[in-house]
Amino acid sequence: MEVLYFAWVRDRVGTAREQVDPPESVSTVGELARWLASRSNGHAAAFRDCELLRAAVNQEHVPFGHPVAAGDEVAFFPPMTGG
Amino acid sequence: MIRVQGVDFEPGAEIDRLLRGRTAVGGVASFIGIVRDDLHGPALRAMTLEHYPGMTERMLAAIEQEANRRWRLSASLIIHRYGRMVPGDRIVLVVTAAPHRQEALESCQFLIDWLKTKAPFWKREETEEGEHWVEAQVRDDVAAAKWQTEPSAN
User: Fold this and answer.
1) What is the fold of A2-77?
2) What is the pLDDT of residues B82-108, one digit of tens each?
3) Of B20, B30, B6, nearest to B101 (Cα)?
4) Taking 90 as the threshold, does the pLDDT of residue B148 lie above it?
5) What values do phi and psi take at A18, rounded to 5?
6) Using CA atoms, how far apart are residues B98 and B105, in angstroms rounded to an integer?
7) Which helix (H) or strand (E) is A13 found in, with range?
8) What ipTM describes this predicted complex?
9) Hey, is the C-beta of A6 within 8 angstroms of any chain B C-beta?
10) For residue B36, what are the contacts with CB-CB under 8 A and spacing of at least 6?
């Protein structure tokens, strides 16, 4: 599974993308976020308050209850500020 | 038509190109977003727009498709820049052309309102006091939410 980070989420995690292989118990975006938070202090800082985050699976906006599976591209980022 | 690019665009030339040969167009609406130096905060030196390549194009295309589903449009165009820009620089162009003004004006506002909350762009500001990520505004969510109800058919 490939995980991408953008804006201040990337700044805190310290990398823009990483390949991860979460345990089978991780089946949703929210569970993935909790699992990722345990990987480093930077991850913990990025995922401290998931209310501040948005997620996409395979480049579609999804809620944190959305399923994730091996091979997915999952992205975490703050609310968007384009335009 | 959508375009995501680092370089500037020329609005007049873009509109001319979009309308070429389209004689059924009765009105064109456009919106140009510009890097603003907010008079109330520390002076803005520059702004960098980050985006999610791939998803950005998908979302802009989906938003444009939704506008064409809701309104009878002759043509539409969204250009959004990324990278570093300074106050006064153009960031985004939305153009809608339709047989009548109402479709053009409404769909243009819809596109920029939805784009702001759905297209994966993030602004980072460089001010004389340092750098920071711009926070999303509640008023942008409110502006986008008012389009949840579709315009009545006429």
Assistant:
1) Ubiquitin-like (UB roll) (3.10.20)
2) 999 999 999 999 999 999 999 999 999
3) B30
4) no
5) -150, 150
6) 9
7) helix A7-13
8) 0.94
9) yes
10) B44, B87
Torsions phi, psi of B99, nearest 5? -60, -35
Q: Alpha-carbon distance B138 to A12, whole Å?
A: 24
Q: Is A41 exposed, middle or buried (0-12, 13-18, 19+ CB in 10 A)?
A: exposed
Q: For residue B111, give both structure tokens.
A: 């596109």
Task: Give the domains, in start order, of chain B with CATH numbers.
Answer: 2-145 (3.90.1170.40)
What's the angle, vertex CA B91, arms to CA B63 and CA B134, rounded to 5? 90
SS3 B34: strand
**Amino acid sitting at position A7:** A
Residue B72 to chain A, least CA–CA distance (Å)? 24
User: If we measure between CA atoms, which residue out of A71, A54, A69, A77 comes closest to residue A2?
Assistant: A71
Check CB contact of B49 with chain A, cutoff 8 Å: yes
| Statement: residue A61 has pLDDT above 90 | yes
Is the Cβ pair B117, A77 closer than 8 Å? Answer: no
Tokens describing residue A65: 């209850």
The reply to whether residue B117 touches residue A79, judged by beta carbons under 8 angstroms, is: yes
